[in-house]
Amino acid sequence: MHSIAVLNQKGGVGKTTSVANLSAAFARKGFRVLMIDLDPQAHLTLNFGVDGKSQKSVYAVLEERVSVAESVVKINDHLSLIPSHLDLAAAEIELVSVVGREVILRDALESVQDDYDLMLMDCPPSLGTLAINALSTANEVLIPLQPHFLALQGLGKLLHETIRLVSKRINPQLRVGGVIMTMYEGGTRLATEIVEDVKGFFEAARNTDSPWSDALVYRTPIRRNIKLAEAPSHGVTIFEYEPKCNGAIDYDALADEWIQANRDR
Amino acid sequence: MHSIAVLNQKGGVGKTTSVANLSAAFARKGFRVLMIDLDPQAHLTLNFGVDGKSQKSVYAVLEERVSVAESVVKINDHLSLIPSHLDLAAAEIELVSVVGREVILRDALESVQDDYDLMLMDCPPSLGTLAINALSTANEVLIPLQPHFLALQGLGKLLHETIRLVSKRINPQLRVGGVIMTMYEGGTRLATEIVEDVKGFFEAARNTDSPWSDALVYRTPIRRNIKLAEAPSHGVTIFEYEPKCNGAIDYDALADEWIQANRDR
Ligand SMILES: Nc1ncnc2c1ncn2[C@@H]1O[C@H](COP(=O)(O)OP(=O)(O)OP(=O)(O)O)[C@@H](O)[C@H]1O
Ligand SMILES: Nc1ncnc2c1ncn2[C@@H]1O[C@H](COP(=O)(O)OP(=O)(O)OP(=O)(O)O)[C@@H](O)[C@H]1O
Ligand SMILES: [Mg+2]
Ligand SMILES: [Mg+2]
Predict the structure, then answer these.
(1) Which of A215, B62, B115, B250 has the smallest count of CB within 10 Å of its CB?
(2) The pLDDT of residue A265
(3) Of A144, A26, A133, whose CA–CA distance to A75 is shortest?
(4) Residue A144 pairs with which residues in a beta bridge?
């Protein structure tokens, strides 16, 4: 099972929107997909119209009160979700002194390994215990990035501090799959410059032994499109809401690009 | 001294952009303004080209290693900044068991009360110790809000959980000054609907005794404008970068609206 952590500590860069719509794109192509909402804001959960205060949430899984199988909510035949809980922020504090707190999620998921082809984890805008659980579970990180000032600085911190440490101390098989340009405003000088900077960053890492030495800058940008912001208010993804708009085209193309890149992995 | 916390736990809604440009707008009108960067990402600090790893940061103030006066960096005659530090995230953890941790900043600022007319505090996208310090220090909260799905849900949590508790247990003089519509895309149904919902929310609170019973929904929206995203990469605010663009017009108009609203307070 491909296990993908979608992470960027910068807020509002399209992590949740990418998890919802990439997962739906993969599901429409026939993959069995499990989404996991690891954000106390529970936006992924609420975007699908699922209860944000269920007793069988990822919070209960992390506290070992329910099994993963008990927590899973079926969205459709190919798409399922482990919901978050609006009190999940407390877990960051409660877990602080639990031995092996970084790998609780990974251990819990072993029981459903064969039930899914792809697992996507939506992370909060922070690098605490919840994000670390995602990174310890994942074999790949996808990083949504809005090409604005300081995007590169945040990326550097995420890679050199957090991902490097998790890869070294907890999860040696963790790779950075790549960066997804989100909320992309084509034709602006800012976007063009930042994309070039990000490409240069990864070029420089090509022959090192870092977990991002073969990371891609995905060619498909996710263009700014108000439909992507509207779909959640109807409890659906872009593919149910407005399947012909740029948002749907972009996420579907991105899914195809990921499949191509991972065919041989 | 008017002391304003700029807070919303939702990421990427324009908190930092609002602190930088509102502060500059007030400074240009002759107010003596102190900005405080309480975000470990230190984006406000970096947006002004100030060192994000100074030994005399807000981190050092919170750990009582330097005084506020020692930490202040002068941007221009009317605008100063207490910078953040990229390691500030550790403060959230280190301060957990310090008695009276919520009011360290407030106590430290007493020494400079008479040196400034306005103080604006930039908060991280979370409701932890750093945000609580801002709320315990402030006499007013301004809430930047992107009119997207779940904006109202985040607002409800911010008010009913965090602001209500700080007002009740630590800072009874705390008021919610109002909500600022940011990244506003005029002509979209989503923006129109969410703005109506937010107005309705505050209408319903009008005659209650909550800290937001006289909160405004500021009439001036901050329109989406790429210039606002470009200015920081030049180390300046919108007024130096592109003084005639919509971003400058909007933040200047918002500053005037605030002054009008607060003339009698
Ligand atoms: N390409 C896009 N075009 C227009 N709006 C978008 C786009 N992508 C996301 N949005 C909207 O922008 C807002 C922020 O996106 P989202 O919540 O996915 O970011 P996030 O990184 O998950 O935020 P957080 O850090 O708070 O978890 C949401 O209201 C979302 O609907
Ligand atoms: N009105 C606007 N038009 C266009 N871009 C904007 C606007 N306001 C802010 N931005 C850009 O959007 C991004 C997010 O804004 P900003 O960093 O101010 O949000 P924030 O709420 O402080 O984020 P965080 O939660 O991470 O602290 C930045 O790159 C900023 O330059
Ligand atoms: Mg999110
Ligand atoms: Mg900010």
Answers:
(1) B115
(2) 60
(3) A26
(4) A180
- Collapsing DSSP states into helix, strand and coil, what is residue B121? strand
Question: Could you give the dihedral angle defined by the CA atoms of residues B1, B7, B87 and B50, in that order, rounded to the nearest 10 degrees?
Answer: -60
If phi over 0 gives left and psi between -120 and 50 gives alpha, with beta otherwise, what is residue A178?
left
Contact indicator for A7, A123 with CB cutoff of 8 Å:
yes
The tokens 């919902």 sit on which residue? B197
Quote the DSSP letter at residue A128: S
DSSP A20-55: HHHHHHHHHTT--EEEEE--TT-HHHHHTT--TT-S
Q: How far apart are CA A235 and CA B56, in angstroms?
A: 47
What Å distances lie between residue B140 and A58, B5, B107, B154, CA to CA? Answer: 36, 6, 17, 18
Task: Please give the Cα distance from A11 to A146 (Å, whole number).
Answer: 10
What is the tens place of the pLDDT at every residue in A41-60?
999 999 999 999 999 999 99
Region of residue A12 (left: phi > 0; alpha: psi -120 to 50; beta: else): left
Is the pLDDT confidence value at A263 over 90? no
Chain B CB contacts of A53 below 8 Å: none
Tell me the one-letter amino acid at A61.
V
Which of A125, A149, A188 is the closest to B125 by Cβ? A125
Among all chains, which residue has been given the structure tokens 């993963």? A68
Shortest Cα distance, chain A CAs vs residue B261, angstroms: 30
Report the separation in Å between the CA atom of A1 and the middle of ligand 1, taken as the mean of its atom positions: 27
Residue located via tokens 């952590």: A5
Q: Is residue A99's pLDDT more than 90?
A: no
Residues from chain A contacting residue B145 (CB–CB below 8 Å): none
- DSSP 8-state symbol, B54: -
- As given in the structure block, the two tokens for residue B77 are 């005659």
Across the 265 residues of chain B, what is the mean pLDDT of every consecutive 10-residue run? 96 97 98 97 96 94 95 98 92 82 92 96 93 96 97 94 96 97 95 96 95 97 97 97 98 98 80
Q: Give the pLDDT score at A210.
A: 95
